[in-house]
Backbone:
């Protein structure tokens, strides 16, 4: 609860590939500052360890994570690797990750919303699909996806078969070289009334004044509802 008795939104944060809860928290400092008076952010680590790279720049999110502390939400290959651009029949570890997040919902929820970055944003989109099917315990009012994309695993196709009605904000950058803008735009078609935030930057959560306004305008609807 914020000063003055205002209830804060509670948002579950789903990190990107090669990140963990701590590194994602550290890399969202400016974003957390924007939301300080509006939301409590809860960070969770994926269960699937990721093999370290020689250089730590893939996914744009590994900087700050030791080689032993990099995780993902599913693998697109049986060699326990992931590439967002791969068309595949593999989604190894996905169900395990769903169970981890179910446990977080049950033990640390309820959550008003979920936020995901990169592979985490793709995972959040599929949580929205599970919510659409009334699958317990995925009850939340909104989702924010930064650098999201449709999973190209054929095993996930069914999750995109029904239009998602959950209110969503989709953030993507013109110069993102990890998850190309076109991949994020392509995912919009699976949502009924997606709100878009297109920024000129790359693979990160943008926090300049124009983006701050969009975040707060989107969240204030749910904040007002919670405090009504």
Residues:
């Amino acid at each position: 609860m914020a000063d003055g008795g205002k209830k804060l939104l509670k948002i579950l944060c789903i990190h990107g590939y090669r990140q963990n809860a701590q590194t994602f928290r550290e890399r969202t400092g400016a974003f957390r500052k924007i939301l300080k008076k509006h939301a409590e952010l809860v960070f969770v680590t994926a269960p699937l360890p990721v093999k370290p790279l020689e250089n730590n720049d893939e996914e744009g999110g590994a900087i700050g994570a030791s080689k032993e502390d990099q995780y993902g939400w599913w693998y697109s290959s049986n060699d326990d690797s992931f590439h967002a651009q791969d068309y595949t029949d593999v989604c190894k570890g996905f169900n395990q990750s769903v169970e981890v997040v179910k446990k977080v919902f049950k033990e640390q929820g309820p959550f008003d919303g979920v936020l995901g970055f990169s592979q985490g944003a793709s995972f959040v989109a599929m949580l929205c699909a599970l919510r659409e099917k009334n699958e317990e315990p995925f009850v939340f009012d909104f989702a924010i996806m930064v650098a999201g994309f449709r999973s190209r695993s054929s095993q996930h196709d069914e999750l995109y078969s029904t239009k998602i009605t959950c209110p969503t904000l989709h953030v993507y950058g013109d110069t993102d070289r990890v998850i190309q803008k076109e991949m994020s735009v392509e995912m919009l078609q699976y949502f009924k009334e997606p709100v878009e935030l297109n920024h000129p930057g790359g693979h990160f959560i943008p926090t300049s004044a124009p983006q701050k306004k969009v975040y707060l305008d989107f969240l204030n609807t749910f904040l007002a509802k919670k405090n009504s």
Notes: The two ends are 14 Å apart (CA to CA).
